[in-house]
Design goal:
With 174 residues, the chain is mostly helical. The protein has helices at 25-29, 47-72, 75-85, 90-113, 117-140, 159-173. It is elongated, with a radius of gyration of 32 Å.
Amino acid sequence: GGRPVSGVDQGKGPREGGGRSAPSREQLMRPAPPPRASHAEPAPPSLQAWAGLAARVLVGALLLFSGAHKAAAPAEEFMVVLEGYALIPESHLSLFARLVPWTEVLGGLFLLAGAWTRPAAVVTAALSSSFFLALLSTKLRGIELPNCGCFGQSVHLERWQAMLLDAVLISLST
């Protein structure tokens, strides 16, 4: 015998300078390594994840329904409702009557689609908070509202019902 010619002859693996060699008996008898985390099956969604999805879908559907009914009607109908609150200057009523319904529609669509959910939830909480405070202010000022305007002319809620709905929407959006 002479000197070994390559790392394979010395029992070295490919990274140690040798070529490919058949696995040794010791390597064959070794247990297989555990599967990598990237190949592991994902854990099923938790109850909290399902509750979050349900809240997002519920709030999104309510916003979409509410905004769509107001957006489909002439803006003047919602302007009359807004005027009853006696909070918005007359010069801004038309802008609010056109902007609020489409803000609700877009917020509802984003929540339902699962897109931009955090910003949509913030806008939802802001809208619901402002609606709640507007309703509270009419109560404190003794203003009777024939229609809260929550769902346009399609559904009429009592003030306490609308305030409760807004409180629930606020809690689900935060």
